Amino acid sequence: NELIVVLAPESNGTVFEEEFVSIGADIVGRIDEAGFYQLRFPQDIAFEDLASAADSIRQMEGVAAVSEHSTVESTLLPNDVPGEGLALTWTNWNENDPSGANWHLEAVHAPTAWNFSTGSSEIPIGVVDADFTQHPDFLGNLNPPHLLGDSDHEPFEVDEHGTMVAGVLAARGNNAKGLTGMVWDADLHYCQTDHYIANTLWCFKQLINSGVRVINASFAFKNPLEYNDPDAVKQRIIWETQIYEAFLSHYLEQPWIIVQAAGNKSIDKKFGAFISEIDVPSISARVISVGASY
């Protein structure tokens, strides 16, 4: 029963707030610097009526993007049990024959790269993800995480996906504990979201304004139950892409790059990763889409 709206940079938010209220919406979330609004309609609103309200707002001059408020989903789940020790073992390092729990590092020739650099605490990097534990293997690499605090939405089950993603990126290396991240030394900033678009965008804002230069987003489009028609699914992704495009356009004065997973299921990858589908050069030049191609 919610919509996400992003205004064009030159738009007057006060005028639109009156319009939103006039069509029965409550403003439950906002980020003024990005022209961002989270609108909530009555709980019993029919899906068709919500879609109609979205179409009406799209016709308003000065509105950059509108989408139903939905969730994203993580693109990988860990196979070890948090708190019960690692069920993983390293194999001998062999970049020519990757295998074992360290095969991903061998596959990208990380050992060779480590001869030149093991990372740097001078370049702020960020992760936007869900559940996260401040594992001791992050000691020395991790800044105080940005946490959402109270949320109007039900929390997702704890799966430690965020801990695993942050560990793959920047678990402390050469410290005789845990695993080894791609970079051993890092200035890691973590923002914990709950998968909802509004809170995910809040995390992007928090990290960019904190000076983070590279942001990892290991999540992809999640198809809500209301969409069973493939064409409707594609249209939904187009709308969500427009939300991210309009939101990020407010932050082009700051230097950042987003690395996003290319998708999560065996579907047309052109419609799996909405940030990667942004077709505006000023933004698309800052997005790196990564697929599982090994």
List the helices and strands and how they pair.
Blueprint: E1 2-7, H1 13-22, E2 26-31, E3 36-40, H2 47-58, E4 63-68, E5 72-74, H3 103-107, H4 110-114, E6 119-129, E7 146-147, H5 161-170, E8 185-192, H6 197-209, E9 214-217, E10 219-221, H7 230-248, E11 257-261, H8 281-284, E12 287-290
Parallel strand pairs: 6-8, 6-9, 7-8, 9-11, 11-12
Antiparallel strand pairs: 1-3, 1-4, 2-3, 5-10
Molecular structure report:
This protein has 294 residues and is of the alpha/beta class. 27% of the residues lie in helices and 21% in strands. A 6-stranded parallel beta sheet has the order 7-8-6-9-11-12. It has a 4-stranded antiparallel beta sheet with strand order 2-3-1-4, with helices on both faces. Strands 5-10 form a two-stranded antiparallel sheet. Strand 2 and strand 3 (36-40) form a beta hairpin. The longest helix has 19 residues, at 230-248.
